[in-house]
Amino acid sequence: MIVMNNRPGIVADIATILGEKGVNIDDIDAEAVGKMALVRMTVGNYDLALKVLRDAGFNALSEEVFLVRLDDKPGALAKVARRFKEKGIDIKSLRLVDRDGENAIAAISCEQPDEAKEMLKDMLVS
User: Fold this and answer.
1) For 28-83, what is each residue's pLDDT tens digit?
2) Fold of the CATH domain 2-55
3) 79-115 burial string, b = 16+ CB within 10 Å, else e?
4) In the list 6, 58, 72, 106, which could disulfide-bond 53, CB 3.0-4.6 Å?
């Protein structure tokens, strides 16, 4: 994740820097929030990506995420979210990263990842 002042060309700069170092971007989400820019991405080599981005002056942060498989139907995400609520675990980020009409894959980051993984072990993608 990168948080910085918004300006034209942020995505181009990030993609260029990572591409030149051979880091593949698996998925990316960029948005402007007021005068700030928030860029979230999943990359092939986190350690290298963090180093390259930080060396280039980007405030790059890493968060542990895990993947869960959901039924791709209404209410499936609500069931997962209720598990977090019932256990009192705060979700830091949740992104649907893939859907095929039958299943959906969600990337989740939370305050207590080990407890959450145990709670969702029936849904974890290995």
Assistant:
1) 999 887 888 889 898 988 899 999 999 999 988 887 888 899 999 999 999 999 99
2) Alpha-Beta Plaits (3.30.70)
3) ebeeebeeeebeeeebeeeeeeeeebbbbbbbeebee
4) 58
